[in-house]
Write a structure and sequence with these properties.
Elements lengths: L32 E5 L11 H9 L2 E4 L2 H10 L6 E3 L5 H13 L3 E4 L13 H9 L4 E4 L4 H9 L6 E6 L4 H16 L5 E6 L4 H12 L3 E6 L7 E6 H10 L6 E5 L9 H14 L4 H12 L3 H14 L2
Parallel strand pairs: 1-4, 1-5, 2-3, 2-4, 6-7
Antiparallel strand pairs: 7-10, 8-9, 8-10
This protein binds S-adenosylmethionine.
Length: about 300
């Protein structure tokens, strides 16, 4: 959510209403097509001059909730008409919007906050426009996941953005164990999750259960008056937020699986090599190694086949 009350966070010295000279009101430089325009995640000073120019040039601005976007536009002297595009109507709206785009319209798409499409509506429309050969471009800007990553103190790459974990405990535990399995197969990436404040404590407890004593960070209210980044181990963060209910908007960042120990994938390959060298068939070697490592038999068998091909 955008925060009208945002304090003087970073970047507010400049008046976001000022577009580069000569650009105000000009449609020149803003090609017809679909423009995916990032908007602030809290601090209204983070709307870029190019976002203002692009939104001013649009014949129509598609947004999730007109009540959220209208004040931002008014504040920046943008008067293009607004139309709602959200998860409940996007599928049915795509054909009509695509026809407009194919007819040469210049449309902008924003979400309530941050970068559209990222855990927000717009993917279906953008994809349909691309497939139809319509010009699609973006005005980049704020994104809570990347900002949290940069402030987490955890390795910035590779990272894996997971969006929201499932809200129900069982499905969430399953999603976490799938990630653990991927790590067992060699994935070593910083993990980024969005979470709602009322689920933060249980989410952190589930992450601590799945990933153990890993370094992590909870980034809260980014770019707003009460911005906070708490860096600690997953069990410490789980204990903290069990005792102190969190408020506001939240991103959880979890450090990568340790890389110094041989990865699950390396371990699996070493065991496969040993079993094949001992004269086991591919099928038997895969079954034995799957049983020993706990990895899915299909995955081990596929790797055994690849190794056979690689070794000629
Ligand atoms: N598309 C947006 C973006 O690019 O950041 C994300 C939209 S998603 C529906 C909303 C979630 O993003 C929130 O529930 C929270 O997890 C995270 N988020 C958005 N703004 C945030 C902020 N200012 N501080 C921390 N997390 C934020």
């Amino acid at each position: 959510m955008q925060d009208e009350e945002a304090g003087p966070g970073p970047g507010t010295d400049e008046d976001p209403r000022e577009a580069p000279s000569g650009a105000v009101g000009a449609k020149a430089g803003v090609a017809p097509g679909l423009w995916l325009v990032a908007t602030p995640i809290g601090n209204l000073g983070d709307l870029s001059p190019r976002a203002v120019v692009t939104l001013r040039a649009a014949e129509m601005i598609l947004c999730e909730d007109t009540r959220v976007t209208a004040p931002l536009l008014a504040r920046n002297g943008i008067s293009a008409p607004l139309a709602a595009l959200h998860d409940h109507n996007e599928a049915q709206e795509v054909p009509r919007l695509l026809a407009r785009l194919q007819g040469g319209a210049r449309l902008a798409l924003v979400s309530d906050a941050g970068t559209p499409l990222v855990s927000d509506p717009g993917y279906r429309l953008a994809r349909a426009a691309m497939e139809a050969g319509v010009f699609v471009s973006a005005v980049p800007g704020p994104n809570a996941a990347v900002m949290a990553l940069t402030l987490s103190g955890l390795p910035p790459q590779p990272f894996l953005f997971m969006g929201f974990l499932p809200p129900k405990a069982g499905a969430r535990a399953e999603a976490i164990s799938r990630l653990r399995a991927a790590e067992g197969a060699g994935l070593s990436a910083t993990l980024i999750f969005f979470e709602a404040p009322h689920r933060l404590a249980e989410c952190l407890a589930a992450l601590a259960e799945g990933f153990g004593d890993r370094p992590a960070a909870v980034a809260r209210e980014l770019t707003k008056r009460f911005e906070e980044v708490r860096r600690a181990s997953l069990p410490e963060l789980a204990a903290h937020y069990a005792a102190h209910a969190a408020r506001g908007e939240i991103v959880v960042v979890v450090g990568p699986a340790a890389v110094d120990a041989p990865s699950g994938a390396e371990e699996m390959e070493a065991q496969l090599r040993a079993a094949l060298a001992a004269g086991e068939s591919l099928r038997d070697a895969a079954a034995m190694v799957a049983a020993a490592t706990g990895m899915p038999r299909r995955q081990v068998y596929a790797r055994a086949l690849e190794m056979g091909r690689e070794e000629g």
